[in-house]
Prior knowledge:
Number of helices of chain A: 5
Largest sheet of chain A: 5 strands, mixed
Largest interface: A-B, 57 and 61 residues
Radius of gyration of chain B: 26 Å
CATH superfamily of the domain at 130-388 in chain B: Aldehyde oxidase/xanthine dehydrogenase, molybdopterin binding domain
CATH topology of the largest domain in chain A: Ubiquitin-like (UB roll)
Strand content of chain B: 15-25%
Largest sheet of chain B: 7 strands, mixed
Helix content of chain A: 25-40%
Oligomer: heterodimer
Strand content of chain A: 15-25%
Distance between the termini of chain A: 41 Å
Amino acid sequence: MSxxxxxxxKQEFSFFLNGEAVRVQALSMERxxxxxxxxxxxxxAKEGCGExxxxxxxxxxNGELVNSCLVPIAQVSGARVTTIEGLALHQKLHPLQEAFxxxxxxxxxxxxxxxxxxxxxxxxxxxxxxxxxxxxGLSGNLCRCTGYMQIFEAVRKAAYGESSR
Amino acid sequence: xxxxxxxERHIIGMAVPRKEGRDKVTGRARYVDDMTLPGMIYGATxxxxxxxxxxxxxxxxxxxxxxxLVVVSASDIPCKNCIALILEDQPCLADGVVNHPEEPILxxxxxxxxxxxxxxxxxxxxxxxxxxxxxxxxxxSKKEIVWGxxxxxxxxxxxxxxxxxxxxxAAHIVEGEYRTGAQEQLYIENNGVIATYNxxxxxxxxxxxxCPYYVNKALMALFGLPEQEVRxxxxxxxxxxxxxxxxxxxxxxxxxxxxxxxGRPVKIIYDRAEDMAATTKRHPSRTRHRTAVDAxxxxxxxxxxxxxxxxxxxxxxxxxxxxxxxxxGGPYYWPHVRIRAKAVATNTPPxxxxxxxxxxQTIFAMERHMDRIARAVGVSPIEIRKRNFLKxxxxxxxxxxxxxxxxxxxxxxxxxxxSKYEEKKRDFNTxxxxxxxxxxxxxxxxGSGFTGSGERYxxxxxxxxxxxxxxxxxxxxxxEFGQGTNTVLCQVAAEELAIPYELVAIAQPDxxxxxxxxxxxxxxxxxxxxxxxxxxxxxxxxxxxxAGLLRETYTPGEFxxxxxxxxxxxxxxxxxxxxxxxxxxxxxxxxYKGEAYSAFAWAVYIAEVxxxxxxxxxxxxxxxxxxxxxxxxxxxLAEGQITGGVAQAIGFALYEKIAWQGGRMANxxxxxxxxxxxxxxxxxxxxxEEKGNVHGAHGAKGIGELPMDGPAPxxxxxxxxxxxxxxxxxxxxxxxxxxxxxxxxxx
Lengths: 165, 747
């Protein structure tokens, strides 16, 4: 948990969350992670370490990958925020979500939302990534279950339509 | 899947979709911190700051509205102040004395999480410090007695043959001492629970946990409640690795006490720093070998002495030590052996379950020692192992006869081929370009299920239920925490019932709904619980056939109709199956002799490493993991277990070091306790041999813990091959290599 935010009154912040305009009352130093989870009911982003090491709270702000445990809500005013909940369109999974399912990229699942968002960001920058680019792109997201191999496969599958197996 | 052909059995061995996979990739999976109850408040823990002492005074500091906080101390505990597990020595809340840093003393609750944190910081405790034992050697010296009569939680003696007779005929006597450090499980989801209490229904807990009935047992003792008034529900669990075997009983107890006192639901979620500092870790170990070998390198006999540091309370140390002891001889034939093992008390937080459960410690020692023996005899690491491997018909150190067909020499040859061991080793050893590369081998085994009579005592029960819509659900307390329990047990039931996998679901583990199928530990779920699911499913089918609703062969549609028919007539359709020990299994708990495990998985792992001459960092360049695990029930999940275990074990070998200060973990942050990231690992290449196992579901053996055992010795053997310096203690960090390289007398 973060240090106590300044005990000043709550303010209104507005931003675009998964494509929709939202307004939320919050203390300006509240963490985006807490606002998403506790005020907006989006619990897909997880707190793993609270210090920006594990990446399980990853979200995209204006397309950039960030640790939402390190971002005060004041900083996202007017920005576009994408969370795991915004990836699947209606019932149709994002190709990366499909690939994670198919390749075994999710085990316990706690790192998965952040890992998938990091993969989205990676494929935005490198649509046809090399293994080294995949490793680098995911190096801010820790997974303790998979040893990453099946996650790499999932990213390759989403990028190339087939995995290397 | 269409309906045609589904009575053909082909679900086992298929990579069917993970049952809860869709929820996990969409962020909908519900972990305990994702859950909120009306009126819920937050709980927190005030902990000891010293390793050992008497509590003299508790001060509630200024600036906190204490009348708004719920405060619980030991005196609020309704019945027994202990966390009931094997022994009842560990208090739920310290009462007058503390025995380790981070020991819980007071519990606080408030609806404002920020205020709560300030309140925890505002409590100061005055102690009268007592001398503390911080490492196992201090405990062994008995300079202070901090537990029982002699600081020893448990000791074992295994004697096979007459080891005193072997020394005089030995061509070589090889000695070594090997150490492994504590390791943090580092599941990405910290420990957490929500508890409610009311006078009629009793206690309910929702939590991140492995063993619902362990929590049930602990809360019954704490509150003095009957089983039906303690309900434990497992939420989606974000990794566990043993770290959520015993500790959830503690945090559940705390939340439940606060819920009782406040009359409101209470959530306790540890932050990373608290989780790392206060909860269990892998037992640090020291293993000494003294081995007599003949001129050809055949082991004549040996003595093995094992010490594990259990921390301040007994928790699971006796069983961790037991598994470590039984695995200490590795996959080798010992005509004569004496093993003395003990788990000792120190004033650190209790060490506990972690994947491998004692075996990674003693297998590290054994496999480092085999390389030392090879060097003493003058044969290769491959040859020394081949000359000593167990073969069918031989007996293990507990005098268990190996009845299954095994070919460990063949397994080793295959792994050597896959890794190009011989060619690479030759190239590396003769390289003139200054590169520091090496190859290392580890051969090992891992017993599946509880040790000895353990499964008989557990007496597990599972259920399979037919529902009114014609679908089926599996009723087990076995928990999913990434390893694939949900998927594999549904596969087993679907295969047995000859119905589509999609028609089978698994019930959320809830002690008011599912029977006690035992704890989710010990690589027992697929093999032992799976076999019970198979039997229960068979019983369900027989009920439908017996009722005249189903023929012996049927289509899935006919099954559904029969199921619907039965449920609408009789109200419910449930079939249960209870563990029945296989015949001919004999175990003597006093002498530690007999059938330790009904099956062993066998493996050979080979690591290729490079040591950087500038940074002294070690990278693993290639890793071959070959194992014989019986029938592979789900190839994708099985491979994921191996790659994940290998990665965790690479951390154990090369990265993960606890910095202890006064019995407390000082580096309790992910910033400075380093686990492998995506850029730190080699391609982990996984291979299986499938031989089948009569005691497991569809021939399965245990798999979850196996991959934790071999990588560390394989890697350290490879480091020695690369730089000709021996490391017998892990983790091996760059500074260790720097120190050893620069302290080495010049050649």
